[in-house]
Amino acid sequence: MTLEGILQIVKDEFKERILSEEVNFGQLSIRVPKDDNTEVVLFLKEHKDLKFDHLADLCGVDYFKLRDIRYEVVYNLYSIQFKHRIRVKIQVPEDDMEVNSLTCIFKGANWHECECFDMFGIKFRGHPNLRRVFMPENWVGHPLRKDYPLKGIGVWEDHEKLLKKIKDLSKFEVRRRG
Q1: Is residue 171 one of the residues assigned to a domain?
Q2: Is the pLDDT of residue 152 over 70?
Q3: Is the pTM of this model over 0.70?
Q4: Mean pLDDT value of segment 25-51
Q5: For the chain, how many structural domains are there in total?
Q6: In this structure, is residue 69 part of a structural domain?
Q7: In this predicted model, what pLDDT tens digit does every residue of 6-18 receive, in sequence order?
Q8: Phi then psi for 35, rounded to 5 degrees?
Q9: What is the mean pLDDT of the chain?
Q10: What CATH number has the domain bearing residue 84?
Q11: Inside any domain, residue 174
Q12: What are phi and psi of 87, to 5 degrees?
């Protein structure tokens, strides 16, 4: 099926809810309202002629000072059977940084949503265990935001505890002989 054919099926179903579409480097991208993300993705997964049954990636984007709506969540879907891709984008305004979780459609969204929350601060409504996965739970801020200081925000309160733990554990280090 062609990209135009995929787009036509999606447009026939969602009509005016497709806010924009574009093709870049042979891949179709559509933008939908943020509260429609689960409905659109479920349709893409279950439609007999599309079968976008693999969530290849989910990521956040920060357009700090570049666009009116600062954040975006991007879903990269792949059809294993038909070997085609689609990118679904939703805009996330700073004053409403909560979107629907896709964990009810793709179990693999779990980790991606936690990462997006950790790095950008975007919350996923309905996520079974939304938490930080890279940064410590008591970390202040979200490091992939464009306005996050390059040297961080002060000193992490548990930094000294971590250094002590490293020193304590170093006694178990195996030393190799020359």
Answers
A1: no
A2: no
A3: yes
A4: 96
A5: 1
A6: yes
A7: 999 999 999 999 9
A8: -80, -5
A9: 91
A10: 3.30.460.80
A11: no
A12: -115, 125
